[in-house]
Amino acid sequence: VQLVESGGGLVQAGGSLRLSCAASGRTFSINSMAWYRQAPGKGREPVASITYGAGITNYADSVKGRFTISRDNAKNTMYLQMNSLKPEDTAVYYCNAWLATGASYWGQGTQVTVSS
To answer: CA 76 to CA 11: how far, in whole Å?
Structure first.
């Protein structure tokens, strides 16, 4: 499975961005997908996840009510709509996919920078 993120950039606090993650390859084996982020000097942390079938979502407390994860199975694409962005949301955002085999794949990451 190959994952390609897009949509990152520089935005002012309070602004919005939408990230996309396009999956290719053995997409029929994907069980769930997720967004993670890694801020400078910190470890990678989960942001939101979604199951590929039922579309069940889960969010980190820090983004609840501001971020929305979604997926378009027909396009094999996952999205992260980020509203009311804060400077502490600044990080490299990574797309992750879990397969039925237990294998996990990562995208290359996209930078999100929120200025105060």
So the answer is: 27
DSSP state at residue 66 = T
* Cross-strand partners of 19: 80
Which residues have C-beta within 8 Å of that of residue 88, sequence separation ≥ 6? 39, 62, 114
Tell me how far apart the alpha carbons of residues 50 and 58 are, in angstroms, rounded to a whole number: 7
50: tokens are: 């979604």
Helix (H, G, I), strand (E, B) or coil at 64: coil
Nearest residue to 14 (alpha-carbon basis) of 85, 115, 105, 92:
85
Question: Tell me, what's the pLDDT at 62?
Answer: 97
Task: Report the share of the chain in percent with pLDDT over 70.
Answer: 100
Angle CA 48–49–53, to nearest 5: 155
Q: What angle do CA 25, 112, 4 make, to 5 degrees?
A: 10
